[in-house]
Amino acid sequence: MLRTVNRVLLGLLGLGLFALGGGVLLGGLDLPRRWDFGMPGWWPFRGPDDVVLGTEGRTRWREEGWWWPTVIAVLAVLLVLLLWWLLAQRRRRLGGVLVDSGDGAAARLDGGTLEDVIEEEAQALDGVSGAHARLTGRSSAPAARVRLLLEPHADPAWTLGRLSRETLTHARDSAGLDRLPSKVRLKEVRHRARRVG
Amino acid sequence: MSANTWRQPTGDSDLPPEPGQAAPSADGTPGAGSGATAAIDEPGRSARRFWSTRRIPAAVVALLSAAAIGLLLYDVVSVRAGRSAMRWRLRLAEELATRPLDDIWVIVGAAVAMALGLWLFLLAVTPGLRRLLPMRQPTGIPGTGEVRAGLDRRAAALVLRDRAVQVPGVQSARVAVGRRKVKARARAHFRELEDVRADLDSELGQAVTSLGLARQPTLTVRVRRPKKG
Questions:
Q1: Are residue B100 and residue B159 in the same domain, yes or no?
Q2: Higher model confidence: residue B23 or residue B152?
């Protein structure tokens, strides 16, 4: 969700900047005349002697009654949306997981506890020297992000199998969840080459 | 000393799993033996890349735009309230209205805007996270289809390097793991180069398969003698 929003907004902004810069360059280098092609009538940059934003363009609607309120409203809305976009970039940790206890009463499992359990169980796996777990998503549909730091002798595929089969399955079952989508990143401790036997 | 180079798609190597790999295979993990061909055939094992959320570029762009728009809004409102406009705004309006389009600063500014726009657009449409190689999902286990894993490229290189230096005759080895290719360069201080290369090729072929990557990289092995002196 956030990924889509970020990418769409970045893409649109990029295209906008690209078009603006390209338009100014076309006019500044006088390319339409040199390469002999025409620009549509509404095109703002009319050749090397034109300016980016002339006084006429800037003050065209200044005398209209609606102009300043509109400018202020648009800027204010843009500012609010940008601040929302900025705040949405924070990584939100999940405070708790809703556990269906089966008797109609909803229980809440602390998110940090579940994270700790995943980390401890992952660290106990053979070949794992460090583990870091974070719960994300919503409390009714949590997701996990796990980072593993592998020891030099570890087998990544095998470790991943153990992690998903044991650690993550345990975490999912103990919280009474139907599914716990997880993303796992595996890194390895840097070390020198050593000949083993 | 000439370098010996040839390529072999590791997915095709039908080498038997070595003893070290047999143990993991026994308790359910697709180990070295089950190979890459099974990975392609089975559904649900997607080789999709990880797509970055692009938090940092989005945060930077949002912060800068919010600052600029906030400043402009403040100034517009304060002018409406009867105060005079800030100097930067008068200057900006004057420059925009007087500098012709073929002014050097306008052209430089336009070029910078184009480059920045192109860069933002590329950020938006490319996956990013080039350091993470998607791994095959462990199958045959209920509930694990929801685990998506990525192996750091440097970690893959370390694993392969450790396997390479165990080959007899290899004095030192360097392994570069790319997104599609694995290049191993080794120095062999004894044994015939051909033998070392054959051993390295089979050893690294197995090792690459056992990494459990969703997409098998192509392996290139080069062996040479250490420099004298």
A1: no
A2: B152
